[in-house]
TrEMBL record:
Keywords: Manganese, Metal-binding, NAD, Oxidoreductase. Its EC number is 1.1.1.83. Pfam families: Iso_dh. InterPro entries: ICDH/IPMDH, IsoCit/isopropylmalate_DH_CS, IsoPropMal-DH-like_dom, TTC_DH. The keyword Nucleus does not apply. Residues 5-348 form the Isopropylmalate dehydrogenase-like domain. It comes from the Bacteria. Its cofactor is Mg(2+); Mn(2+). NCBIfam families: PRK03437.1, TTC. The keyword Chaperone does not apply. One of its GO terms (molecular function) is D-malate dehydrogenase (decarboxylating) (NAD+) activity. This is D-malate dehydrogenase (decarboxylating). Belongs to the isocitrate and isopropylmalate dehydrogenases family.
Length: 362
């Protein structure tokens, strides 16, 4: 039987709570298919591990992860460990070392999720963000000069390489072409007179190779406004690491809330494992209460199924989430329900079972 080896890094705060439900869903899908199974290996890395060992992961952690088909991650970062240490030594380290340069974040308002805006139709909120995930504003390079002195200066460098910029833009064009949708580039060349001038230039160059893809380009400030005022303008969207980070939290607010926003960190060449995770963090304010919304993590499980070539099951998982939202009686408090994290996961698996037994999914 086919086996997918998945490394689970549940991480901090609500991470383990939501990951449990995602694992439940993946196991249910595999059980109902019976042609493949998941072999999950849990890694105890995160802020508690740091408190005990003075590091966020094992020294050879990246080596250990290399042999997996995918990584499933909950959340990283918790009060007590400075965020730049916990994130750079675990989450960002994995994204970088495994060259997961494509971050796919759907901003799609599912059936049953609450419409957040007046005068906007459900189908108007259907974007696919493709965020550059390996360099840009997240190069990690910088300098702290004259620390503590009157003339202290801190530099944080952005790096936009030809290779890094071209490959993400090309990936976005390929996606837009395949899906028959428009492609919007979001940048900021009026103020960022090197990086974003370069970004726009590369976008224009690559666009010549895709005459069939209709394009648009916005400055990031205007894009933030237009995502609220006129979201249907945005279909496939490509943007830099930092802009993509910020705009996809805005997107989450448009598409059912942060508890429903999923992301896939993809290494398209498949030289290394890709990583699937919700886009939210460890939510220290609600951690340990069993009330975190697991739907974002479950949606990212659907992305993992797509990645493994089981798009039909990826679709079933999304349909199950929609069905749960339409029913509306088992939801967590962020969606105005009274359900617990595990009740939501249980209900999703029940619905999956129902869908898969009543349709010929394969
Ligand atoms: P956050 O996403 O953890 O929380 C923001 C708000 O959203 C909080 O009110 C929280 O309760 C709520 N929320 C988040 N996820 C939820 C869910 N599944 N269900 C219900 N409510 C949810 O962002 P933050 O507070 O800015 O960050 C907390 C920590 O997480 C920080 O250390 C940050 O660096 C880290 N972080 C990690 C990741 C990641 O691992 N991918 C992503 C973002 C933030
Ligand atoms: C995200 C997160 C991370 C990011 C942080 C935790 C480093 O906010 O995945 O959206 O900025 O990429
Ligand atoms: Mn973020």
């Amino acid at each position: 039987m086919k086996q997918f080896k998945v490394a689970v890094i549940a991480g901090d705060g609500i991470g383990p709570e939501v990951i449990n439900e995602g694992v439940k869903v993946l196991n249910k899908v595999a059980e109902l298919d019976s042609g493949f199974q998941f072999d999950f290996t849990y890694f105890p890395w995160g802020s508690e591990f740091y408190a005990k060992n003075g590091k966020m992961m094992d020294d050879n952690g990246i080596e250990q992860l290399k042999e997996f088909d995918a990584i499933y991650l909950g959340a990283v970062g918790f009060p007590g460990v400075p965020d730049h240490i916990s994130l750079w030594d675990l989450l960002l380290k994995i994204r970088k070392n495994f060259d997961q340069y494509v971050n796919i974040r759907p901003v799609k308002l599912l059936k049953g999720a609450q419409l957040p805006l007046v005068d906007v139709k459900r189908e108007d909120i259907n974007m696919l963000f493709i965020r550059e995930n390996s360099e840009g504003e997240y190069s990690g390079a910088g300098e702290w000069l004259f620390k503590g002195k009157e003339h202290e200066v801190v530099l944080q460098n952005s790096v936009f390489s030809r290779k890094g910029t071209e490959r993400i833009i090309r990936y976005a064009f390929e996606t837009a072409k395949k899906e028959g949708r428009t492609l919007t580039s979001i940048s900021k060349a009026n103020a960022l007179n090197y990086s974003m001038v370069f970004w726009d230039q590369v976008f224009d160059e690559v666009s010549l190779e895709y005459p069939e893809v209709e394009t648009a380009s916005y400055l990031v400030d205007a894009a933030a406004m237009l995502m609220i005022k006129d979201p249907k303008r945005f279909e496939v969207v490509v943007t830099s690491n930092l802009f993509g980070d910020i705009l996809t939290d805005l997107g989450a607010a448009l598409a059912g809330g942060i508890g429903l926003a999923a992301g896939a960190n993809i290494n398209p060449e498949r030289n290394y494992p890709s990583m699937f995770e919700p886009i939210h963090g460890s939510a220290p304010d609600i951690a340990g209460k069993g009330i975190a919304n697991p739907l974002a993590t479950i949606w990212s499980a659907s992305q993992m199924l797509d990645f493994f070539g089981y798009e039909m099951y990826g679709k079933v998982v999304l349909e199950a989430i929609e069905q749960l939202l339409l029913e509306g009686d088992v939801l967590t408090s962020d969606m105005k329900g009274t359900g617990s994290t595990s009740e939501v996961g249980d209900r999703v698996t029940e619905i999956i079972k129902y869908i898969m037994s009543s349709n010929d999914v394969k």
